[in-house]
């Protein structure tokens, strides 16, 4: 049985974990598109608990992550979960913020770490700089051997830990040098970290959004600017837009150029969501890169969003609503079966993308986290398809995939769940929120990091899921026995290819031929 450590919260942790919505919270749509169970997919997915042996692996969530030479680089994030919710709490213990740079080798099962704290003579950083580098829920993207990070929420005043807010920094981490430093190399951490602010005070000042490079331009998608001590009943200022910029970085001087900010719109009032790179097959056989935004929180009535948003290569967001009213006035989105309305895995979770150039289908796998619907056909409250809807948005262990076919039609499939792990009180643990997926060595991907589905054969370990929040109950808020913590668990992700029906028919024909026609229809 797994020991579940009770860790009491900082208010910072409550920013990352969902605030309990009111009983009258209204989602973007009152209905969701039925989730397919046992559907005709070209793969199956399974997770296995991965033993890191004696390697020291930190329990972290809401961190920034990169990969270098097959090793994970983990920066910032939090070490605590959430138990209870005290609006009057005003301290943020340093012990809850990850101030170390971690390097983890999942194959050799070894790890290294070193603190950025100025007390380490090898840091070379000021306390103010360390605060900006140890935020939670920042946005990050790796380009080659550099990790770029924007914003994030945390302490802003080295002398007053009640002063908190969202940072306005763009940071570049040079991974080869930083990894060597973290392993005990000479020099200082500051030699491998460069940072600038936006003079306008706006571009990078985001937490709870996401950031990806598309066609050479950075897209900073949605999120919010939250200032002051966090209170669960309040919201920050949502960006309601995509901010597009280019990075100029010659290895010495870091700069950026603003390309455009999309027009703010109410339908884009979203944070703590799953954003992912996509591919679309064009008529001439070429591929186009873009982004898709799934679900997220909160609507003006503290509900969840359900209809996806597609962001093109130029940073223009469009809600995939078929041209209907995007805010569902009069229930127009509910009444349309052509509009996809997501019900499972609606919060930021570990995820991976698969694309088939042969079929043109894009698959995004979502691992656990927080959901609106769960598959539980034995539950008396289940609908005709076996799903239970919980408007209070519970923690889940279940896995789904959102599939967009070559014609742009969406559907969602139930794929299974995490392995069963239990706390000391025999309550089942729930994983996935604010966790990250790390690609395994040797897996074929497209330029934007999406896995080449057509290159997979048999059963393949495509990567790992690490970290995130762990909870012992569907709901933590208002539950006296509901506990949460940062997770140090690692799970191996295995994809098993399922032959296409045409491949099965061809195999049968071959077998019949080899058996001298002994097969019969």
From TrEMBL:
InterPro entries: Gal_Oxase/kelch_b-propeller, Kelch-typ_b-propeller. Residues 1-25 form the signal peptide. Keywords: Signal. This is Uncharacterized protein. It comes from Adhaeretor mobilis.
């Amino acid at each position: 049985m797994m020991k579940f450590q009770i860790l009491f919260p900082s208010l910072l942790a409550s920013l990352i974990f969902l605030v309990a919505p009111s009983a009258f919270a209204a989602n973007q749509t009152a209905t969701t598109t039925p989730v397919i169970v046992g559907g005709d997919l070209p793969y199956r997915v399974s997770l296995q608990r991965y033993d890191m042996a004696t390697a020291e692996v930190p329990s972290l969530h809401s961190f920034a992550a990169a990969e270098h030479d097959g090793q994970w680089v983990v920066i910032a994030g939090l070490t605590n979960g959430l138990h209870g919710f005290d609006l009057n709490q005003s301290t943020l213990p340093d012990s809850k913020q990850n101030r170390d740079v971690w390097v983890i080798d999942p194959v050799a099962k070894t790890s290294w770490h070193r603190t950025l704290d100025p007390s380490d003579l090898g840091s070379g950083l000021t306390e103010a700089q360390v605060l900006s580098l140890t935020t939670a829920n920042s946005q990050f993207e790796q380009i080659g051997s550099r990790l770029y990070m924007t914003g994030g929420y945390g302490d802003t005043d080295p002398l007053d830990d009640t002063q908190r807010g969202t940072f306005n920094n763009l940071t570049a981490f040079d991974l080869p040098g930083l990894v060597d430093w973290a392993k005990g190399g000479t020099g200082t951490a500051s030699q491998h970290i460069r940072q600038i602010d936006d003079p306008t005070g706006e571009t990078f000042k985001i937490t709870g959004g996401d950031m990806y490079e598309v066609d050479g331009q950075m897209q900073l998608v949605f999120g919010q600017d939250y200032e002051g001590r966090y209170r669960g009943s309040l919201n920050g200022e949502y960006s309601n837009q995509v901010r597009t910029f280019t990075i100029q970085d010659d290895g010495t001087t870091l700069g950026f150029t603003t390309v455009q900010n999309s027009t703010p719109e109410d339908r884009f009032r979203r944070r703590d969501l799953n954003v992912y790179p996509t591919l679309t097959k064009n008529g001439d056989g070429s591929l186009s890169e873009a982004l898709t935004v799934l679900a997220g929180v909160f609507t003006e009535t503290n509900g969840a969003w359900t209809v996806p948003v597609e962001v093109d290569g130029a940073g223009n967001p469009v809600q995939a609503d078929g041209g209907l009213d995007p805010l569902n006035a009069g229930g127009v989105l509910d009444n349309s079966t052509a509009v996809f309305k997501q019900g499972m895995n609606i919060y930021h979770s570990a995820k991976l993308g698969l694309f088939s150039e042969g079929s043109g289908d894009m698959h995004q796998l979502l691992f656990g986290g927080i959901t609106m619907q769960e598959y539980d056909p034995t539950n008396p409250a289940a609908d005709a398809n076996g799903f239970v809807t919980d408007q209070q948005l519970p923690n889940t262990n279940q896995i789904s995939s959102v599939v967009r076919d070559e014609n742009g039609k969406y559907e969602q499939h139930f794929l299974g769940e995490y392995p069963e792990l239990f706390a000391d009180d025999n309550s089942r643990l729930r994983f996935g929120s604010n966790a990250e997926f790390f690609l395994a060595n040797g897996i074929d991907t497209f330029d934007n990091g999406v896995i080449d589905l057509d290159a997979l054969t048999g059963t393949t370990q495509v990567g790992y899921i690490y970290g995130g929040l762990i909870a012992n109950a569907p709901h933590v808020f208002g539950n006296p026995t509901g506990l949460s913590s940062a997770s140090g668990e690692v799970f191996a992700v295995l994809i098993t290819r399922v032959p296409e029906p045409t491949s099965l028919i061809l195999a049968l024909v071959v077998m019949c031929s080899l058996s001298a026609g002994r097969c019969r229809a």
